[in-house]
Design goal:
This protein is of the alpha+beta class. The chain has a single domain, classed as Alpha-Beta Plaits (2-Layer Sandwich). Helix content is 19%, strand content 31%. A four-stranded antiparallel beta sheet has the order 4-5-3-6, covered by helices on one side. Strands 1-2 form a two-stranded antiparallel sheet. The longest helix has 11 residues. The two termini are 36 Å apart. This is Copper transport protein ATOX1-like.
Length: 96
């Protein structure tokens, strides 16, 4: 934090960020990973949602294209193993 001092009174106060004070932290960006999951119905997509329902995980399911996009700070190595708990065939396609 940058402080501004009043030379007459000796008092200090924080400068706003635009004037050189501390800047707010940028929003955290979660890595996005795409997998192909052999989903054929809403029951399948519900199973994917269930196994990925964890704190810090955001899931976007594209049922017609059988794609699952996961935003997470968890290890990418755990993603295919977690998705396989649905009983479906899973292929990791890579980061988005």
């Amino acid at each position: 934090m940058v402080l501004k001092e009043d030379v007459q009174t000796g008092e200090t106060e924080p400068l706003p960020a635009a004037a050189g004070g501390s800047l707010p932290s940028p929003p955290s960006v979660l890595p996005k990973h795409v997998s192909s999951v052999d989903m054929t119905c809403e029951g399948c997509s519900d199973a994917v949602t269930r196994v990925l329902n964890k704190p810090g995980v955001q899931v976007d399911i594209d049922l017609p294209n059988k794609r699952v996009c996961v935003d997470s700070q968890h290890s990418v190595g755990t993603l295919p193993e977690t998705l396989k708990k649905t009983g479906e065939i899973v292929s990791y396609l890579g980061p988005q």
